[in-house]
Design goal:
The chain is built from 6 helices and 4 strands; from the N terminus they run αααααββαββ. The protein has 154 residues and is mainly alpha-helical. The chain has a two-stranded antiparallel ribbon. The radius of gyration is 15 Å and the shape is globular.
């Protein structure tokens, strides 16, 4: 855990903005969301990794956060406490700077849901998680933009 905390403390989260998405990025992001919401966590991880690889600036941390949520949930399903705890913790600090909404994703809702799963993983501990691999999965909700007003709506 020390290395995770060290990385978090040294991360430059100042001035992060919403990543610009190409048409390919948007398609793969949406594909990953569908896979994630269908609880195909590893596949969603792979889809988002393609987007992450194309982004080179610091805003790519948003995609890392999504990837780590998927990796954490994959580890939850496998009953692997250390992996679930580490990935979910990392996902939370990487996604929080992008609240409330980023790339039309309701990040606040996702952070809240992931935090609840992470709390339950920690409560169960290593032995308990092995027998509770069916924890409720967070779902990713999208916001849509109102064309006339430029605002986002649920």
């Amino acid at each position: 855990m020390a290395s995770v905390e060290k990385r978090r403390q040294h991360a430059d989260l100042e001035g992060l903005t919403e990543p610009e998405l190409s048409a390919v990025d948007r398609r793969e992001l949406l594909q990953g969301i569908q896979l994630f919401n269908d609880e195909r966590f590893w596949d969603s991880h792979e889809s988002w990794e393609q987007v992450w690889r194309r982004h080179k600036n610091t805003n790519r941390i948003f995609f890392q956060g999504l990837i780590q949520v998927a990796a954490g949930m994959h580890q939850v399903r496998r009953g692997i406490y250390h992996g679930a705890d580490k990935h979910l913790r990392n996902a939370l600090w990487k996604l929080r700077p992008f609240e409330p909404v980023c790339a039309d994703i309701d990040v606040s809702d996702l952070v809240s849901a992931v935090a609840a799963v992470h709390k339950e993983v920690q409560r169960l501990g290593s032995d308990g998680l092995k027998s509770h691999t069916n924890l409720l999965s967070p779902k990713i909700k999208l916001w849509r933009r109102s064309a006339r007003e430029g605002r986002r709506e649920r």
